[in-house]
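Trying the structure run again after the queue cleared.
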Amino acid sequence: MTDLPGYLVTGLGTGCGYALVGSGLVAVYRVTRVVNFAQGAFAVVGAMCAASFLTALPHGLGELAAVAVAAVVGLLVGMVALATDPRSALIVTLGLSVFAYAVEVLVWGDQPRSFAGLPGAVTIGDARVQSHYLLVIGVTLPVFAGMALFFTRTGTGKALTACASNPYAAKVIGIDVRRMGWLAFAIGGALGGLAGVLVTPVQQITFDADVTLIVNGFAAAILGGLTRPAVTLAGGLLLGVTQALVAGYGNAAHQTDVALGLMIVVMIWRAAQRQTRGPVEEPV
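Done. Tokens:
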């Protein structure tokens, strides 16, 4: 049990990455009702761009530039996807995520990429943990707090919330729902890019790493019905810790199985709740 504190911190750091990907899914779905299957690709683009930018830019600036590129990619995906209805947009985002493979291989190749993160390690109990995991946690929590303030205290955030609550009423009072949808995709791109930038120093990223990220991010987001960022954060942390414990005390090959199993359990539970209570409106 001496390794338990290390597994917990490692799991929390990994779970923060899942939560950021999941929160991007939530940001898009709340406003547009589109399940964005390209969300994992935003993380890969952010990670790959950071690896390239850091060859010429200092830390901090290189990562911020990579997140900005991911936000622009998110905006472009949103402009294409929202040109159709939500059901078709789901297929469009899936197609764009596959298309991203070709672009990523063409630009960066098919070899894993990484870059240096926060150096050193800390001792927690009897376990040694990379300091970068603490950085991931230390960045993610303020980001979620900032998102909460953005959606509740700013005019743009309130407009996005209005679109999530009632798009028709938002149109009536003069809110451009389509532009808000584009903004939601840009926010999703930035959150995905941030996830990729944060986790790459401790987990190498390849062009097809978006599959793992989207599976785990979706598992975190589905706990809150794809509408509640705070529950998504809790789901990501729970998932990351569970996977770390499975890898530490069991077999690391079953980590993805944990995410899939969690999704199945939650979906079955939510379906049972709907049958029991009848259709209910999702909280926002």
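Strands lie at 121-124, 127-130. Worth checking whether this holds up in the mutant runs.
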